[in-house]
Design goal:
4% helix, 7-stranded antiparallel sheet, mainly beta, 250 residues, globular
Amino acid sequence: MKKSLLFALGLCASLTFFTSCDDDDDDPEYTDIVTFEDVDLGEAGYDDQNTFVYDNVLIFVNNHESRGSYFGVSSKTDTTTAGYQNDASVFGAGGNAGSKCFGYCYYSEYTGEGAIIEVVDGNQAGVESVSPNRVYVSLTTYAALALRDGNDGGGYGEAVKLKQGGFFSATFTGFLDGQKTASVTAYPGDFRGAELRLMTSWTAVDLKPLGKVDKVEVTIGGSEDLYGDYGFNAPAYIAIDDFSFTRNGR
């Protein structure tokens, strides 16, 4: 469901890609909130080519060059154009809580590794692990139109509409020193009940069960009806915003 473009991977450790927030009115225990607001996206309105570092503490990894899973950032809100050429739009009006920008990630099932958020090794802040608190999740337009209408734009792959009894899932898995801590699964597309439910507005996902981690891996999957002879037949994308975490020192 994804047509990748090759590009040079840019790791820019000196660039602070997101903003941080020392407190939050709803959740005062949060020490950092990755808001995606301070990225220069230029005329394109999105960036899917670079790996960035948040405050020299967290890396949002981009493996797009090797056709792998990756994180990008966007301000695109085209909710009508189906297909991979609109893979960076959220199916909504913008970021969480009226903000302009948001993150998004793509999962490549062929590489076997999800989209990665990890602690910067040997960072000057002395952070060895983080405790994720919460992230807001929404569907991208590419995924939403495929799940709702079976419309992938007609240009790549064969989308299948989500059928009753099926689901589209995003799983956040924590790791510490190479060992899995726990997983949290959200369902941006859910037809296990009487009605199709799509996350077309930002929905909070509690990540506290992950505990202390030095890496979070995001994978995307679903029920059997979303798979075909050549693998997953739904666009493996989600949008994320306001990723909240607490720093753990040495």
